[in-house]
Amino acid sequence: MQYQAILIGLDVFSAFAQPLYITCYPLPDMSTCKSPNTVVYRGNIDRCARERQNGHRSKAFWFTGLSGSGKSTLAHKVEEELYAQGIRTYVFDGDNVRHGLCGDLSFSPEGRSENLRRIGEMVKLFLDAGTLCLTAFISPLKEDREKVRRIVGADDFFEIYVKCSLDVCEKRDVKGLYKLARAGKIKNYTGISAPYDEPEHPDLVVETHRCDLATCVDQITAYIHNHL
Ligand SMILES: Nc1ncnc2c1ncn2[C@@H]1O[C@H](COP(=O)(O)OP(=O)(O)O)[C@@H](O)[C@H]1O
Ligand SMILES: [Mg+2]
Predict the structure, then answer these.
(1) How far does residue 71's CA lie from ligand 1's centre (Å)?
(2) What is the dihedral of CA 213, 218, 224, 227, to 10 degrees?
(3) What is the pLDDT of residues 64-77, one digit of tens each?
(4) Residue 5, strand partner residues
(5) 3 sits in which H/E element
(6) Given ligand 1 and candidates 73, 178, 216, which is best to mutate, with the most ligand atoms within 8 Å of its CB?
(7) How far is the CA of 66 from the centre of ligand 2 (A)?
């Protein structure tokens, strides 16, 4: 992965002097590009300008965990907290994108991988737009999570493991899908008939089978503030 570093100096003339920002943009991987005769156009209003206007950096916080572990609940609650603090956010939620952008993909390993690649590219655009991104995808395979980390750029990507035992997730069975998966009516169901690679070195772990919702929200919100 190649990076282009952009250095933004201290702006002493604006009403709010800004800190020194060094932003690294992952350059596109031209080896897999099927439209080689294209040249990236960089406008004057870039990510740094948008971040400065927003008054905060844009980073991606990637929630991974079993179905029912609490990814959507936590991502949206954390968004409410950040929104109230004037931070520009967007939640990418697995089920939502599968109704649109990724509606053509199945839950096969290839479909899941392409789903996450597209989300990674979307997140990269939203970071360029200056938005703090929260994502709620099972993202079961280490390989796919690593691929997304490379697409987004390691400096901007934080993996949050929403840890919850399969037993508790299955008891919650928020959507009734574990029951169907156990009955063999849904194939490739993570934890039942498809694997989940536990994150080995997540940036943050929240244990939703041990801590209540408010505690987990506080842990994540504090972590985000420390990394903006
Ligand atoms: N500490 C917790 N954090 C998040 N969700 C929790 C917690 N404790 C219980 N829950 C419940 O677990 C369920 C998680 O569902 P959901 O957020 O849809 O999971 P996922 O998006 O990971 O599939 C919700 O019903 C939520 O109220
Ligand atoms: Mg969800």
Answers:
(1) 7
(2) -140
(3) 999 999 999 999 99
(4) 24
(5) strand 3-8
(6) 73
(7) 9
